[in-house]
Amino acid sequence: MANWDARFAQDDYVFGSAPAGFVARQAWRIAPGRRVLSVAEGEGRNAVFLAELGARVTGFDGSGTGLAKARRLAAERGVSLDLHHADIADWDWGAAPFDAVLGVFFQFAPPPLRAQVFAGMSHALKPGGLLLLHGYALRQVGYGTGGPGQAANLWTLDLLRETFSGFEILYQADYDADLAEGTGHRGRSGLIDFVARKPAA
To answer: Maximum Cα–Cα distance for the chain, whole Å?
Structure first.
């Protein structure tokens, strides 16, 4: 993940220090004290926000530089995070069950790795646990305001509904919005939101 180390090396937070709008809007679903896994957490903006609301957050990322900034942000905000330096392809999804699993803009993953990660996220959830996904829609390639630039890496609601077909869908949206998240996400963007509950049994 040397490319992400280089990208995160600047002093400023590449995607800002405030949570993604999706996370801010959906955080009410996660009660204080719940255990949350944040996938590819980067510089810590989402994990820190959830910890401020009382969640017990575990996060991992392949960039040591990003995690150092996440630790700095957590210290500045007076919260504790359980952070791990790990590649997304190597994370142990069965290490502990979580009440919620969060994935925001991890669209560097091509389809085979994405399928592996989605399966892992499902496995990491407790029965009845919440899955929260936020990323770019296919048309984002045309907007060019963030994301990987490869349509194959982007999401559709049909893809997510099919992948998590046994889950109860609590919220889903495919929409455009103007993002102002650091220098990394700025301008008109095509977005996908997906919140679903793993079956209780």
So the answer is: 46
